[in-house]
């Protein structure tokens, strides 16, 4: 179970890194701010046997906030494009696709957490 969670968090960290580009914190595509979330691959154990770092709940809240931010950014770019402001179509499409992929990833994460919960409940 711990390996599965570590695998999910490291995958989330990898996917968050895809949005980073050479434009100083802006997305890999020109002018798209991804708001990528840095997810720890696993909290290191301390001498007392506990863990340090953000809790799973905090990480989950941060991830959901990032998905919401991506949706908002895509909506803003779409609205600017519709109003005729200086926004390229490829920026709108890239932001929309990124928001869609992050939402799909969040739904899959929910499904995996639900499945893990059901597995734990069925173990007696």
From TrEMBL:
<dbReference type="InterPro" id="IPR001624">
    <property type="entry name" value="FliE"/>
</dbReference>
<dbReference type="GO" id="GO:0005198">
    <property type="term" value="F:structural molecule activity"/>
</dbReference>
<dbReference type="GO" id="GO:0009425">
    <property type="term" value="C:bacterial-type flagellum basal body"/>
</dbReference>
<dbReference type="GO" id="GO:0003774">
    <property type="term" value="F:cytoskeletal motor activity"/>
</dbReference>
<dbReference type="Pfam" id="PF02049">
    <property type="entry name" value="FliE"/>
</dbReference>
<keyword id="KW-0975">Bacterial flagellum</keyword>
<comment type="similarity">
    <text>Belongs to the FliE family.</text>
</comment>
<dbReference type="GO" id="GO:0071973">
    <property type="term" value="P:bacterial-type flagellum-dependent cell motility"/>
</dbReference>
<protein>
    <recommendedName>
        <fullName>Flagellar hook-basal body complex protein FliE</fullName>
    </recommendedName>
</protein>
């Amino acid at each position: 179970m711990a390996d599965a969670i570590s695998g999910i968090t490291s995958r989330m960290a990898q996917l968050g890194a895809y949005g980073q580009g050479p434009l100083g914190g802006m997305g890999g595509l020109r002018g798209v701010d991804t708001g990528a979330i840095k997810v720890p691959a696993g909290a290191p154990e301390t001498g007392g046997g506990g863990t340090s770092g953000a809790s799973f709940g905090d990480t989950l809240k941060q991830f959901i906030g990032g998905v919401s931010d991506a949706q908002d950014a895509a909506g803003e770019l779409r609205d600017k494009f519709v109003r005729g402001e200086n926004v390229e179509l490829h920026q709108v499409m890239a932001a929309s696709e990124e928001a869609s992929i992050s939402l799909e990833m969040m739904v899959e994460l929910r499904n995996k957490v639900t499945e893990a919960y059901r597995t734990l409940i069925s173990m007696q």
